[in-house]
Structure formats: structure tokens, C-alpha cells
What we know:
Layout lengths: L17 H15 L5 H10 L4 E6 L5 H12 L3 E5 L13 H11 L2 E6 L4 H10 L7 E6 L5 H14 L10 E5 L6 H10 L6 E5 L8 H9 L3 E5 L2 H7 L2 E4 L35 E3 L20 H19 L12
The structure holds N-carbamoyl-L-aspartate.
N-carbamoyl-L-aspartate binds next to helix 3 and helix 7.
Amino acid sequence: MERESAPMHILNSSQFDRPFLDYICLLTDTIRRFDKSKEGLLYLRGLLAHKRAMLYFTQPSTRTFLSFQTAAQILGMSTNEIRDSATSSERKGESIEDSLQTFSSYVDMIIMRTAVPGLCNRIAAILDESERPVPIINAGSGPDEHPTQALLDIYTLNRSFVRDGGIDGKTIVMVGDLKRGRTIRSLSGLLTNYQDMRIVFVSPTEYKIGDDIRTKLQKANVRFDETDQLQDALTIADAVYMTRVQDEYDTEGESKKVDYSRFHLKFEHLKLMKEKSVIMHPLPRRAELDVAIDADPRAKYWRQERNGMWTRVALLTKIFGVDHKIVLPEL
Ligand code: NCD
């Protein structure tokens, strides 16, 4: 049997370049306009009504799972899910590779979140050699990568700075567990696509950003600083990106020994920040982001969450090649 050509997988944030990011942002903006009318929504629902997606999420998830599932539904796709490997034949000793190959027999796309870095890439390579090479989307791969979160973060930043020259030239302050935070790692990679960026990494010594990201930024000539002084960094931030401690990756409860309270964004810190700055968080939050901040106009995390759904709608149309059915305005 003749094999189909390799599909478009979404595996790592490094696969996106600036034209792709600009395109996805424009496509997302355009698709959102269809949400304004019944006709628009019915049109979207017809675009992928012939496609089926599998959501294989064996790490906890609220937003990423729901926003992917809802994005698929907006485009008319049907979805199946496994949310615990204990309910699949992995329990009977089936390898994860065989399980995923099985899913590909039934669906047209696999969206997966697992604790295993690199697994999505491995599965994509296996499926590319199989009779049913379906697209694989990495919806979070352990402490490694979360490329679709990074896309929605870029979309949110872009939208926030639309009247202020875009993302180029901005200072982004990233706070928290930078070592194990996959959102930070993927977003830092994407920021190398922009001009004159400055990143300030704020973290306890134990959670400093990984060497691989440092090397990536150095190679791309992105200016970055590392500090444990949150308040100083806040004064120069155009965007502050907060994150929680990723203690699910602790081996022996080591996070309990780290004083994280110095890396909490509190209501009283708001006065240090520029009037036009934005506050982001991939969520879920804990004490690192004061709920009193929600009412401040600079808080963008609830919007960021909703942006995620629309960015994923745009991405799905692109992966299945129906994006040309969305008429884009002239650039
Ligand atoms: C993040 C994740 O899963 O990496 N959440 C998300 O996808 N929105 C952040 C986190 O769990 O801290």
C-alpha cells in the first residue's frame, strides 16, 4: 500500500518561525470573528466534520485538554479520550508505542500530553513510517516542551502590544520554576524569533533556567539576565509571566525546602509595574499570583486562557489544510 506523505506534526516550539507565528496570529484573529454569528459558527463546524481526534492525556490537565477538545468541536471534529494509562491496554503490558499506533487506526490526529520528554517525537517518527501517518500534537511533554501553550502566549503578547509596536523590543520577565516549567522553556524559544528582545529570568537558585535554553538564546543574540530580585525586574517589565512550582517532578519533596514566597506577585507589587505592562500565567495558579490582581486591567491570564482555544482552532485548520477557507484580510 502506498504511504501518504508525512503530516504536519506539532512537536517542539523550535519548529515555528516568524512568518508562521505572524500567520497563526492573523489566522486566529480572523477565525474569532466567526464566533460573532450563528452562520459563522456553523461555517466553522463544517470545516473538519469529517475528521476525528484522539486526546491522550496521561498527565493532569484542565485548560489544555478542554481547549483542544472544544477547538476540535468548534470545527466539527469528533473526539475520543484516554486520560489515564491505567484504563488502556498499557495495563496489560502493551508498549506505549503500540498503544499510540492503535489510536492511529481509528482517528485522524493524536493530541497527547505525557510525562515523558521526547515521546511525541518518537511516536511521530514511528507513525510516519506506518500505513496511517496521522499528525501528532505535543500538548505538554513532561518538564520539556509545551509548544501550543507557547503559541497562545505569543498570540496573547501580540494582541496586548498591538498598538505599541508588537512584541519586538519588549522586556519579558519570567518568574518561578524556570528549570522544570515547560511553558517557560517553549516560550523562551519562540521569543528568539523577535527583534531586540530582552528576557529577565527571575527564580530561586534551585530553579534557574536550563543550559539548553541559555545556549539557544545566546545563539539567537537575545539579551537575557538572571536574578532573584523580583521587585527590581517588575519595574522594567513590559510583560510578567508568572509560573508555579512544578513539584510533580520532585524526587524526594525537595520543593518544600525552597523559599518560593519571594517569587510571589502580590497586589502591592502592582504599583511598581508600568501602566501598560501585562501580567500572564499559564494557570493553574497557586499563591504565586495574588487573586486580588485579577481586577487589575493588566491581568491578562483569563484572556490568555480563552485565546488558547482560538489559537488551537487556527492551528487545527492549518494542520488539516483548510486554513485557506478562512479569508484573511490583506496584510
Ligand atoms: C501548564 C502546564 O501544564 O505546563 N498549564 C497549562 O497547560 N496551561 C502550567 C502548569 O501546569 O504549571
